[in-house]
Amino acid sequence: MQLTNSAILAFLIKFIIFCISAFPLYFAVSIFRKKVSFLSVLLVTLISGFLITALNSYFKVWGFLISFLILILVYREVFRLKWFNAFIVWVLQFLFIVLFIGLSALIAALLGFSGIGFL
Fold it and tell me: Which residue range forms the structural domain that includes residue 9?
């Protein structure tokens, strides 16, 4: 099977987006743990993504709550945090995502991109 340049480029773009999506968690965890490896954050992001998708598919009604509790447990175990700190990491991760989206929208607006056309 021969890979085309577009397939390689598509993979690289998806990998870069995946790496960028792990930065909010990395920043949040680094507040509580000074020595956290980006590789461990990438693995937690990958595993938690699969886990949350599977749980939400299996538990239709209560999937979000079970996923949330499992995610806090994963943060607690992998990064060796206390329960409350794992919850705060989750909140900070969300706040960093909101901040990043807001800054991206502001930069896009300053550069002249409209909301609908930019999407």
Answer: 5-118
SS3 20: helix
How far the first Cα of the chain sits from its last, in Å, is 34
Cα separations in angstroms, 26 against 29, 71, 101 = 5, 15, 17
Over residues 23-49, the pLDDT tens digits come to 999 999 999 988 899 999 999 999 999
- The string of pLDDT tens digits covering residues 71-113 is 999 999 999 999 999 999 999 999 999 999 899 888 888 888 7
**How many domains does the structure of the chain reveal?**
1
**Positive or negative, the Cα torsion across 67, 70, 71, 72?**
positive
